[in-house]
Specification:
This protein has 2 domains: 199 residues, Rossmann fold (3-Layer(aba) Sandwich); 100 residues, UDP-galactose 4-epimerase, domain 1. The mean pLDDT is 96. Helix 1 links the parallel strand 1 and strand 2. Helix content is 40%, strand content 18%. The chain is of the alpha/beta class. The strands form 4 sheets. Strands 3-2-1-4-5-6-11 form a 7-stranded parallel sheet, with helices on both faces. It has a two-stranded parallel sheet with strand order 7-10. A two-stranded parallel sheet has the order 8-13. Bound molecules: uridine-5'-diphosphate-4-deoxy-4-fluoro-alpha-D-galactose.
């Protein structure tokens, strides 16, 4: 019998790429997503339920009709800057609702979860590249939300025998063009789609801050292709299925690019100049985030294949032009 995976937030950017991979590997995929970020979901390979992932009736129905083998939880508010302005919404969605989901799993005897965490749990890292030994010091409510859930996962694992893998993503980017799975947030706040739209529509791209402690003064981030992220989830579940103990991993490409370097790279891919404006810092942003992903490589055998920056930008550019929503 096919194994069944419940994927809250599976219509989103990283969720849909992962859900597709799970389907390809022979799993039955059930997605619960309220399409909050303005995205659509027009794919036949998953059972799609448009609902809040904590809707009791919906969950009761899913759990009574299916034997859920594991949950991959993607549903979250994700904009670091917004979390500083609207912590209430972020705590409600990312913490309270996620705890409800964990309770529901415990009540229905579902023992495995792969959780979408973030490198934002570290705040300004003490050491770059950033390994899992860096102290937790999140500076945004978003980072604190993710850390709260990591603490809860640990407690639930100890008390209720839940097994979890928490993946601390760096910056997800790129698209799966063939399967029409790319970034579609509304409003969009992420650097790559905004840069590419500025180029495409001859609009201004705003650089948020040029006085960070980096070589050129702009923030440095680690961009990882969404297909590499998806693959890590598959390996995480396999690890739990093979009896691996609950664990957490940093998940990035291990290369850092400043905002100015990203602009140069995007202009090269699109063969067109971008209009830019220097603006104030965006609250919640840290100077540099570059992953040390050696733990996930060693323990899960994860090998990134798609995270070369030019390939990331090329697929993101194709997605921007051909996007079929
Ligand atoms: N940036 C700009 N101008 C823009 C948009 C972004 O200069 O118009 C800068 C930001 O200030 C930041 C960098 O580009 O320095 C990347 O910003 P993004 O908004 O693309 O991504 P974030 O790093 O803020 O956050 C993303 C996800 C989070 C995740 C984090 C991990 O949204 O969920 O990556 O680093 F936690």
């Amino acid at each position: 019998m096919k194994k069944t995976i419940l994927i809250p937030g599976g219509a989103g950017y990283i969720g849909s790429n992962t859900a597709y991979l799970m389907y390809k590997l022979g799993y039955k995929v059930i997605i619960v997503d309220n399409l909050f970020h303005g995205q659509s979901f027009n794919h036949s390979w998953a059972e799609f339920i448009k609902a809040d992932f904590t809707d009791n009736e919906v969950l009761k129905n899913i759990f009574s009709k299916n034997k859920i083998d594991a949950v991959m939880h993607f549903a979250a508010l994700i904009e670091v800057g917004e979390s500083v302005k609207r912590p209430r919404d972020f705590y409600n969605n990312n913490v309270i609702k996620t705890i409800k989901l964990l309770n529901c799993m415990v009540d229905h005897g579902v023992k495995k979860i792969v959780f979408s965490s973030s490198c934002a749990v570290y705040g300004n890292p003490v050491k770059i590249p950033l390994d899992e030994d860096n102290p937790y010091n999140p500076i945004s409510p978003y980072g604190k939300n993710k850390l709260c859930i990591e603490f809860a996962l640990k407690d639930y694992a100890d008390a209720y025998d839940l097994q979890y893998v928490s993946l601390r993503y760096f910056n997800a980017a790129g698209a799966n063009i063939k399967e029409r799975l790319g970034e579609q947030h509304n409003p969009e706040t992420h650097i790559i789609p905004l840069m590419l739209r500025a180029i495409k529509n001859n609009k201004i791209f705003k650089i948020f801050g040029t006085n960070y402690k980096t070589e050129d003064g702009t923030c440095v981030r680690d961009y990882i292709h969404v297909k590499d992220l998806a693959q890590a989830h598959v390996l995480a579940l396999k690890y739990l299925d093979n009896g691996g103990k609950s664990n957490f991993f940093n998940l990035g490409s291990e290369a850092g690019y400043s905002v100015k370097q990203m602009i140069q790279a995007a202009q090269k891919i699109c063969n067109k100049e971008m209009k830019i404006e220097i603006c104030d810092r965006r609250p919640g942003d840290v100077d540099i985030l570059i992953a040390d992903s050696s733990k996930i490589k060693k323990v899960l055998g994860w090998i990134p294949k798609y995270s070369d920056l030019d390939f990331i930008l090329q697929t993101a550019w194709e997605w921007e032009q051909k996007k079929i929503l």
